[in-house]
Design goal:
The structure is a homohexamer of 77-residue chains. Chain A contains three helices and no strands. Chain A has 77 residues and is mainly alpha-helical. Chain A has one domain. In chain A, α1 crosses α3. The termini of chain A are far apart.
Chain lengths: 77, 77, 77, 77, 77, 77
């Protein structure tokens, strides 16, 4: 796998949130490496409320980590 | 996507809670960008106890992060 | 929405726990603002073991935050 | 409700664990105050693997809080 | 119940992980004390992907606590 | 079981993420030690959106611990 997570540092909370979304997706890729299968699954969960909420939960967990790594962007102005 | 998360700082715990609710929703938007589909899903989960509780869990996870970022609003009076 | 979360400070762990229960419920109110719908859902989840356990999980997550905010009530006697 | 959570301090990790179990149960009592209903639900979830695992998750979350409150019982010998 | 959790200290991360697995199981024993019932449930969840993943989640939560208690085994070499 | 977790230290966030994936899988191995059964379960959950998301959640929880253990790789450049 190529370099996709060189650092947890981001310039802003929003970029940190986008990183968290990416981090949530990579675990799925590592468990289901077949892009074709993932493409078939996407519409299923993207139209399913439970799956969307569960995805949002994973993002929230990763965002907590990214936020701590960035000291909550306290120094940013 | 426009700027929606410039900072994790809020004046009060309640504003922090409202930010957490917003953060929970954005992940859903990023996974299901089609507003029409989301509009169809909303009544489904808003009348489903399990989905409501799961949503509340995502909010709780984000709130933990926002609260830490604000040092639990200890300096506020 | 009226002021419902002015502070995370509570006098005792038990009051902190009660605050966590309240925090778990508010997210549900914000997703399903119709009190009538919520009243119809309550008996459904209050008699469903899975929903009760999931609710208890949300309370546990909020309690962790409230406890940290109160420095675990270490100074209380 | 009577005093049931005067402190998060316990003498040992095991007592902390037992407190976490208690904390997981109280949220259920607060959502379903009717002891008779709870008595009917108990055999349902106590013989259901998913419910048992979910209960164990709630205990794990509360234990994390109790352990932090006790500074992980580092001073105990 | 006999002494089963005298300390959260372990010599290595791997022993900490094994302790986390044990901690995940004890909550199940406390909710379903009947060993015979648990023996009947085991094959059910051990052959069910969802239950296995949920169990792994509980272990992850306990491991976070054990790791913090051991200061992430930073002093070990 | 052989030594599989000698340390939580990794050189980069990405290696930390890979370690988190491994940590998520080991709990499943410990609950279902039969490799043949696990091989039969893999295609089931690898083609099921809910299971994939739940797996990603476990990885997120372990990654939080690994990231803290590495002080978020702040010293790395």
């Amino acid at each position: 796998m190529t370099q996709w997570l060189p650092t947890l540092k981001t310039a802003t909370p929003q970029e940190g949130y986008e990183l968290a979304v990416k981090m949530a997706r990579v675990a799925i890729k590592m468990t289901q490496p077949d892009a074709e299968v993932r493409d078939k699954l996407r519409p299923v969960y993207a139209e399913n409320a439970d799956a969307l909420i569960a995805s949002s939960q994973v993002v929230a967990t990763h965002f907590a980590t990214v936020a701590a790594a960035n000291d909550y962007w306290r120094d940013a102005t």
